[in-house]
Amino acid sequence: MPRRKYIRCVLVLVYLGHSLGLAAPNPTAALLTIAVAKTPLSAPWYVAERLGLFKKYQLTTQIVDYPSGKRALQAVLDSQAEVATVADFPIMLQSFNHTNMRVLATFTTSRTELKVVTRQATGMHTPADLVGKRVGVIVGTSSQFFLERVLLYHGIRPQQVGLIHAEPTELPQLLAEGKIDAVAAWEPVIYHCRELLKDGLVEIPSEHHYRESFNLVAPSEFIEHNPATLTLLLRILAEAVEYTHNHPQQAQAILKQRLGLDDEFIRWSWSNYEYKLQLDQELIQTLENEARWALQRGLVNATQIPNYLRFIDNRWIKQLAPTADLLVNPIK
């Protein structure tokens, strides 16, 4: 065949291939590693896995479990995963050194996962009762940040309370043995306190002082080079979030089997969480408040907080949920 006719035939085939969506290699063929924190906050991802949504949308993925969002985010920063599920506080801490992080969506929020609890025998019932008492916290984390917000809201200086640092696994036993008077922490720490103290556990009112969010995060370089992959990933997330919200019993059963959680803990904690796809102004406000606090506590080596609008990329969520709670014109 003459060369000109050959080239003409090739061009026709390429044109037809593009028309049929077959010209380019499948952009989702490469393995996508999702670093997922093992917590009910990540429930939509386990739902997506069980329902076969990754296969449905032909996205080749592997979910790698991590004990915390902090560790999951570190996996992304260490190039061991492409995307991660992580709470706002670890995002804030890493934002001072890693300006290439982008939050693509918030899929779970909670105003009640963090709690302040005490033993009934202490006689404490209000935040004012914490003055002069020993309160166990995980120093330098959202545990301490949350407690101090509660105290300041009630006109109590943090210095008026004795903060006792301990690991999450140690706090329930310390409280039960009377070595501390109260605990400010997240789940499942509070649940384990309840296991030990049963009806002797008292919750000190502390709602609405902090909204924890769980978010999907990816590096900007990956985002810019993989738009098709992210479009599919956000579509999967949107479907999984809707299922988790609308079918709580089925989602709880998936979580129980996938993470080996007991029924009582899932029932205890489930009401803490709102599964909803969004990317709103409150996330920015929370990050800013946390960053100012981290500067004051000397947790970061900086003199000013970052511009968190630069860490938001709402292009993907806008395609799927144009009526969702979205930030207006985040800076690129």
Descriptive overview:
By secondary structure, the chain is an alpha/beta fold. The protein has two domains: about 30-110 and about 210-320, Periplasmic binding protein-like II (D-Maltodextrin-Binding Protein, domain 2), CATH 3.40.190.10; about 115-205, 3-Layer(aba) Sandwich (D-Maltodextrin-Binding Protein, domain 2). The protein is about 45% helix and about 20% strand. It has 14 helices and eleven strands. The chain has helices at about 5-20, 45-50, 55, 70-75, 90-95, 140-155, 170-175, 190-195, 220-225, 225-245, 250-260, 265-270, 280-295, 315-320, and strands at about 30-35, 60-65, 85, 100-110, 115-120, 135, 160-165, 180-185, 200-205, 210-220, 275-280. The strands form two sheets. A six-stranded mixed beta sheet has the order 2-1-3-10-4-11, sandwiched between helices. It has a five-stranded mixed beta sheet with strand order 7-6-8-5-9. The radius of gyration is 23 Å and the shape is globular. It starts with a helix and ends in a 12-residue tail after the last helix.
Question: Topology, pairings included?
Answer:
Elements: H1 3-20, E1 32-37, H2 43-51, H3 53-56, E2 61-66, H4 69-77, E3 83-87, H5 88-95, E4 101-110, E5 115-119, E6 134-137, H6 142-153, E7 162-165, H7 171-176, E8 182-185, H8 189-197, E9 201-204, E10 212-219, H9 220-225, H10 227-246, H11 248-259, H12 263-270, E11 274-278, H13 281-296, H14 315-320
Helix pairs in contact: 2-10, 2-11, 5-13, 10-11, 11-12
